[in-house]
Structure formats: C-alpha cells, structure tokens
Amino acid sequence: MSAASPFERREESVRRLLEERSVPLPPDLHTRAVRRGERLLRRRRTARTLLWLALLAAVLAFSLWACSARPWVERPSDTTPPVTGL
Amino acid sequence: MRAGSRGRPPGQAARRAREFEAFVAGAAPRLLHTATLFTAEPPEANPGARRLAVHALAHTYAAWERLSGEDPYAYARGCLALRYARTTWYPRRLRKAPAGGALALLEPRERLIVVLRMFEGVAEEQCAALLGLPRERVAGLCAHACAVLLHPPRERADPAGAVRP
C-alpha cells in the first residue's frame, strides 16, 4: 500500500479544517424540538381531519342532490310534437 | 392528556419520547456542528444554526414512527440540508455570514456541499439526489470549495490553484 495520494491528503486537511472548532450545545434544544414536533403533528392531524370532513360533506351533499334530482331518469320530452297520423 | 398521545396507546408515546431523547442526546452535538458550518456562524453565537437544528429535530420527531428501519440521523441531516438550501433563497437572515472563518468566503451552496461531503461523509450520489443536482455539478462545486478552503483567496487567482495539492 502506497502513501496517501495528494487528493486524499487534500480531503483530509479540509476535513480537519471543518472539525477543528467545537460548538457548545444549548440545553433547551431537546425541549424546543419536542415542542415544535408536537405542534407539527397536531397541525397535520387537524389538516387530515378537516380534509376527511370536507370529503364526507361532499359525498353527503352529492347523494342528497342525486336522490332528489334523479339525473338518471329520462326527462319527459316537451319539445317534440306528439306523433300523429300513423 | 397530552395532545401528542391522543389516539395512540400511552405506552407507545412514552417509548417514542424516550427513544427520541436518547437520539437527541447522541445526535444533537454533531447536528448543531453541521448546522453551524452551513451557516458559517461563530460557534458561540449561532442563532441561525440553532433554528436549523431545532427544525430538523422537530421534523424527525414528527416522522419518528414512519422511520422504521431508516437511520434517524440521516433523516435529520436531510431535513437540515434541505432547509438550509431553501433559506438561502431569501437574502435576509441566514444569508449574511458573519466572519465565520474560511467557510464564510464560500457561496451558501458550495458550503452546503463541502460540509455534506467532507464533514458528514455523504457520498456524491446521495448529495446529488438530495439537492437535485447532477453528480458532476456536485463534484465540481466540492472541488472548488476545497480549493478555496485550502488556499487563501489571493492564491485563487492562479488557475492551477484548484489542481495543486
């Protein structure tokens, strides 16, 4: 195995450059993350509930309208003249 | 009753809280370090990086049950990188890089890629897939960022500077 290539040495020095400073950890990170995560979940649940309710309302409205209007029944014609002279 | 445990057995919520706490204890220091490198803020004054880290951790928390088998750290890192990539669209807030050393010389996208590739050790292909860039573009941006980091900007005028070790 030969020594590290110039490319690898370059990568290694960039890596060292990025790792040299340590970052202090704030103590409230976990609390803030959980609070925001709960809020996210709550919002998603609300949005899902509202969408289902809207879908349900649309289905209900359509069936009520279909029952009363009966669009599949053929309408009595009032434009054609009555058939006579047969 | 907590809102988060509604509709689920209470044992599951407690287990999730415990698991997530352990995950944060292990992953938060590195995640915050990555975020601080993204924003090129000084390590002691990094409000932007903290916001990024909280965002990534909160989304990981919300997705915890869907993550079965997947590495939560990789998920959080993806959230972090994508969030940073989006925030750099807006010129305010995170865009201004206040004297964070050599990293502050780079464009936000170059910094994002060099930190993902070199500090986090993400493969080129995964980087490209995450950011929606061609693989060659990721390699080029990373090489340029490495060259800028290793050589001061005065030497960058030398066209061979990017190739020299």
Automatic annotation (TrEMBL), chain A:
TM stretches of this protein: 49-73
Source domain of life: Bacteria
Sorted UniProt keywords: Membrane, Transmembrane, Transmembrane helix
The protein, known as: DUF3040 domain-containing protein
From TrEMBL, chain B:
Domain of life: Bacteria
Domain RNA polymerase sigma-70 region: 102-138
Signal peptide segment: none
SUPFAM superfamilies in the cross-refs: Sigma3 and sigma4 domains of RNA polymerase sigma factors
One protein family per Pfam: Sigma70_r4
Name this protein carries in UniProt: RNA polymerase subunit sigma-70
Naturally occurring in which organism (per UniProt): Streptomyces physcomitrii
